[in-house]
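On clarity, I found the account of how folds are encoded harder to follow than it need be. What matters is that the chain and its backbone geometry are given together, residue for residue. The format is easy to grasp once an entry is in front of the reader. For illustration, here is how one protein appears when written out as sequence plus structure tokens.
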Amino acid sequence: MELEYLEPSFIPSWHKPPSLLPVNRLRRELLHVVETYPVTIIIGQTGSGKTTQLPQMLNEAGWCDDGKVVAVTQPRRIAATSVASRVAEEMRCKLGEEVGYSIRFEDVTSAVTKIKFMTDGLLLREALVDPLLSRYSVIMVDEAHERSISTDILLGILKKIRKRRPELRIVISSATIQAHEFLRYFAGSGYDQDNQENPGGAIARIVSVEGRTYPVDCLFLESPPEDYLERTIRTVLDIHRHEPKGDILVFLTGREEITEVVERLTDSVASIGAEEHALLALPLYAGLTAEQQMYVFEPAPENTRKVVVSTNIAEASVTIDGVVYVIDCGFVKLRAYNPSTGVETLTKVPISKASAVQRAGRAGRTQPGKCFRLYTEQAYQNMPDVTPPEVQRSDMAPVILQLKALGIDDIVRFDFLTAPPAELMIRGFELLYSLGAIDDYAKLSRPLGLHMAELAVDPKMAKVLLSAASFGCLDEMLSIAAMTGAESGSVWVNHDDGKEHKELTRRKFAAEEGDHLTYLNVFKAFVTKGRKEMQWCRANGLDYKFMTRAVSVKAQLGRYLERFGVRVDKSAASQKATTAEAIQRCLTCGYFAHAGRMQPDGTFLPMTMSHHHHHSCNPGADGHDHHSHDHSDDITPALQSNLHRHIDFDRIVTLNESVAGSGQAIVKKTWEQRFDDEPYLESDVDEQVIMTIPFTGQVKLHSLLIYSEPGPTAPKSIRLFRNREDIDFSIASDLQAAQELEVPPIPTGSPQVIELPLKRAHFNSTTSVTLFFQDNQSDGDSDVTCVRYIGFKGDFAPLNREPVTVMYESAANPKDHKIIQGLEKTNSFLPGQ
């Protein structure tokens, strides 16, 4: 039965009439608290009605008068769209009129919309245009206890907005275990834990709308199962054979596990025999189409027990009535970002105690239930209390970019609910700097960084799109971005045609250059042959709704680029075929951090982001794209950005399921002289030396390199002054230096370059460096400071600056001090080069 054919009083997700929902018993109290306190924190189980009823209460109480809107954010798209549909039905209006929703690349609202459901990330994007979110009178953050990264950032933004807009009301829906953390966060200095009645003071208050729940018996295993999927199937069949009627909800970790269990349960139905014992197994995960997801909400046929096999999406985001039995595998897949590799993975980990309680609670909504936990009681005791928030395990680059675009420059001091690890922050800044989104002062670059923030895609893909026109592949990259960013399930659909047929259909679109080109082939085939033919999509194993959404996403991304002044010429794309190499080069502009070097054993070593620089993504005058993929094995002792210029794409392996091969990166370097003037030298009768080195632009210095003969003439110490060209011998010894370096003894034998690390914070925005070499503390010419070479490592602040080197040799007689090579390519000078 389709959703639209159900009567208003009987819908898949919520069967209980609104007047009977627990939240309605607290209508007067809730409205009073919202009116009185800037922040209201609501504790309520899924199904209590807080998400659907409170926005309607606020509308009826006048919070939507004078054109104002009540916003309700959700951590998941499925929740935003399904709840909006439900509320629109209750208010007897068409979806998109008084009640609407906005998710990424999809806006179903109008000028008369009063209640707007959206993802929390979408509301953050709205703040780019309206920093104070002035159109909203009340903002409700639902399921805040899930602690998605967008939710945490949104709460920080709302806390700042509240100071400028005291009339704004913030409502936070949370599980009990997290409620006081939110209260403490918003109350700030006004928080008083000794105040039992209201520790939040005049700022925030907690309201509990816990509905009546029935007891749930939690059953543990005596010993851990060898295979929890096998144990899941056995438990489902045992319940089906021996327990009274009632549907079953199974929690597993992902699509593969769910598909296997559903298929095996379906196969087992035939062996059960009698029709009165029928078993209907249904999957539920985010990758399903909306129609497939709605099946789980429909009542099972007569004499049939329904089994919903779900990810943690059924913990809180949706409510499935009729569930009496829950089977909890005890695991969940969490996204975890590895800052050393720059790769985000889904990792299977034990759930938290809070999640275990939440899962068990699904069995006690309509009658007493049972929860079968496929783990031991000791394993439960060892679980963490709560799941680590996403902000502590996610790529911070998109967050930093968005906060910068919102005008928050001092990200380190941003009031995070839970502070992210420093390593993740550093990695995020490095990536954004290498992409050119921020400058040397960590300020948002304009227009590039601002445009990257405004594009509703990952920063790496944003850089690719903004660079695509220069590679002649803009239309193709828009198609690829649409396919990878549609976020509406999977392009591939598993029909009942067998694995062999699935592989054959996919092979028709496969490109040896990689998955991105494969997606491009799929998109091109769809828009030319199958856009209006659902049967064509089915025959080729494609999701028709996914493909139509990708077409819409491409159009919206194109409008973004046109607003930025980028010409999106579709006719040119159709007239001239773009080479795969141009597309690969363009992709490297954003995804160079994912490059790796093949090792002798066939494995790949990921490159370190510290070796990349945003210059490297710009096409060079020679027509080659200058991608920063690799770092040379040699140490180039000069002021440098460690750039490797040209990548030979024919010899690079793309690590995905579509490509195999071997090869290596080919690198080239270019050098330019970047000193403003020759270094200024001065010495005195005490055999002391002052050297001042000016640069053409602002420089960030990382280390000083010195090359001297071993023995008494080698320098013992150096005092460095930044941006001080007035240093003379009368003050050089006593004036506070930016840094004082002790030079270690140079070993006898071959002379070598010694690298001395500098305090980078002391040498930002450097236009000149003055070095003071003190007397070596003995008489005669043998101890005169004698330096053969001075060099630096660092980065030029202005774009397109290149490595520089200064070389200097002194003599015993101060009058003979001279520059022997003012500017030089150091790799042709140093020993062993």
